[in-house]
Specification:
The protein is mainly α. 76% of the residues lie in helices and 4% in strands. Among the domains are: 126 residues, no CATH class; 42 residues, no CATH class. The protein has 13 helices and 2 strands. The protein has a two-stranded antiparallel sheet with strand order 1-2.
């Protein structure tokens, strides 16, 4: 006699396990996030380290050179953005005056269009201001805490990268010891596919970001928007956050056009960015990025939202590559292959008979029978009717 575990018990255990897993991710984000970034960047830098070692350079020196080059590139990008932001801050008082004027015009339009008294609108604004002032202390504290955490992570990530690269043989040996010998081939395939996926994905992402930043900046310069290069680069960085970042990237230059120029310029910005998004989504992403990461749009949006809820902006950046790594692992484990298929972007043929309808016959009344009719198209038509006496 075999004891079967009730389905509701299995579902309850799975739900509790997922809740515990996500709670641990949220609770340990200060440790897990920098380690995840460091691990991904280490895989990206590994070919560079191997190149230097192939030239006869000592392993420690090769790792140090690779990390130094990375720091130089990141610092150069940050200095460029900082110089643009500095120029923007010099014009902030003028922009603030124009923004206030635009805000008053908007309130006037709302009051006249929706027949709402100005006193009610002003009262609502004053309430929002009072709430903002009450929350200001907490916001300042959270901002200081976030900046402090970012500074600590910026110092820790290079250290983690160095240690990951230096102890790579130790980590690989440890991985081989925790799996049986007959599983080593599968594990090696997973590690190789993961390494190739991350390297190709990140390189493709950098190329796409550079192209989008150039297109954004050129379009804004042609239209005549102030701080075009800064907004173009920021838009390309935001575009790294799937779907959500693109909306914010369009909103910023449109707002700048409304404040400093005319509504017509804002419309031109919208048209230009929509064209860029069409080029990006239909040509750049499929050819450069999406070909490396097989994650469908539905799962992408869900994991981005989950990543943002768990780890904030860092979670949004990490959500897609982490999900792609999980897909590689799921595809190699028989019991988890359905999850890998769910994450991927391989669509079954439309109209394909996924379930065998004839099996339903046994569950139907003896007076019913099932008939599968093939139509001229790829669709399958199912007819259930009374059987003849």
């Amino acid at each position: 006699m075999t004891n079967t575990i009730p389905v509701y018990f299995k579902v309850s255990v799975i739900i509790l396990g997922l809740l515990g897993f996500f709670f641990i991710l949220w609770l340990g984000q200060s440790i897990i996030v920098p380690l995840t970034f460091a691990g991904i960047i280490s895989i990206l830098l590994n070919p560079l380290v191997n190149f230097f070692m192939g030239k006869g350079i000592n392993r420690i020196i090769a790792i140090t050179i690779a990390i130094t080059l990375l720091i130089i590139v990141v610092t150069g990008i940050m200095l460029f953005i900082g110089s643009q932001v500095s120029m923007f801050s010099d014009s902030w008082p003028t922009i603030k005056l124009k923004f206030n004027a635009l805000f008053k015009e908007t309130l006037k339009w709302v009051s006249e269009t929706f027949n709402v008294g100005k006193s009610k609108v002003n009262a609502w604004i004053n309430e929002r201001k009072a709430e903002s002032l009450n929350d200001a202390g907490g916001m300042i504290g959270d901002t200081v805490s976030t900046i402090t955490s970012m500074m600590i992570n910026l110092l820790l990530i290079p250290v983690y990268i160095f240690l990951f690269l230096f102890y790579k043989p130790l980590l690989l040996n440890f991985t081989s010891q925790i799996f049986a010998d007959d599983k080593h081939k599968t594990v090696a395939e997973v590690l190789f596919n993961t390494k190739s996926l991350i390297q190709n994905y990140l390189v493709g992402l950098l190329i796409e970001m550079a192209i989008v930043a150039t297109m954004n900046s050129v379009a804004l310069l042609i239209i005549g928007i102030d701080y075009a290069i800064m907004l173009g680069v920021i838009g390309a960085l935001l575009n790294l956050i799937p779907y959500i970042g693109g909306v914010v990237a369009i909103s910023l230059p449109m707002l700048m056009a409304l404040i400093t120029d005319t509504p017509f310029d804002a419309v031109l910005v919208l048209i230009a960015y929509l064209i860029i998004q069409i080029i990006d989504n239909n040509f750049l992403v499929p050819k450069i990025v999406a070909s490396k990461v097989k994650v469908n749009a539905l799962i992408s949006i869900i994991v981005v939202l989950i990543g943002g809820a768990l780890w904030g902006v860092a979670g949004m950046f990490l959500s897609i590559p982490v999900t792609a790594i999980l897909k590689v692992i799921f595809d190699k484990i028989p019991h988890l292959k359905p999850l890998g298929f769910l994450i991927g972007d391989t669509m079954p043929p439309i109209g394909k008979a996924i379930f065998d309808f004839r099996e339903i016959q046994a569950r139907l009344s003896p007076k019913k029978k099932i008939k599968v009719v093939k139509t001229e198209t790829t669709e399958v038509k199912v007819e259930i009717k009374d059987s003849e006496a």
